[in-house]
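sry for the spam today, last one i promise. struct tokens for design, 79 residues
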């Protein structure tokens, strides 16, 4: 699996939404709309939590959750 492909897909998808979309990795919080932030974070094999808040949060969670699953990333979508 190429993490690069996952990062580009995640960032492009996140940018379609108005909601705040943040990935938590241990004590770090990364804006999923930032490709650079994702590159520096998705290098390890951590467990992540995805926090989405905003007017289109449900759609964003569904879209990003599908990408995480497709790329076998260990991410929990937090309600």
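last one done:
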């Amino acid at each position: 699996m190429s993490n690069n492909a996952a990062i580009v897909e995640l960032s492009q998808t996140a940018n379609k939404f108005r909601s705040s979309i943040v990935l938590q990795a241990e004590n770090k919080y990364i804006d999923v709309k930032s490709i650079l932030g994702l590159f520096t974070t998705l290098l390890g094999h951590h467990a992540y939590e995805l926090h989405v808040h905003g007017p289109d949060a449900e759609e964003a969670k569904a879209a990003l959750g599908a990408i995480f699953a497709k790329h076998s990333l260990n991410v929990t979508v937090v309600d």
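The two ends are 28 Å apart (CA to CA). ok im logging off now
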